[in-house]
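Supplementary notes for students who missed Thursday's class. We covered one full example, reproduced here. Read the sequence, then the structure, then the short commentary at the end.
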Amino acid sequence: MGTVGWRLIGTAVAIGAGALATKVVSASWRAVSGHEAPTDPSSVDETSWREALLYGAVLGLAVGAARVVAERKAAQYYRRSTGHLPNADSVND
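Structure (token representation):
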């Protein structure tokens, strides 16, 4: 498994983690607030600034944390499969 393999794995887990985190935050928002998450920034009549900014902050934190966890787990899998961590140049390109 080389650079291309790592890029495929890294991209797939980052996208999956982001999608999962978004679903979890939206469902949690709905459970706590009793209404849908403010996902459309242009709906100024339906959502207050406070609510929109709070949702954005919570979602950003959740997606960022999920991505870090997923990429670290993917790197551990890569190391078990190849015997070494992915090349730093292939991760940051």
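Commentary. The two ends are 17 Å apart (CA to CA). The chain has one domain: 3-92. If anything here is unclear, bring it to office hours.
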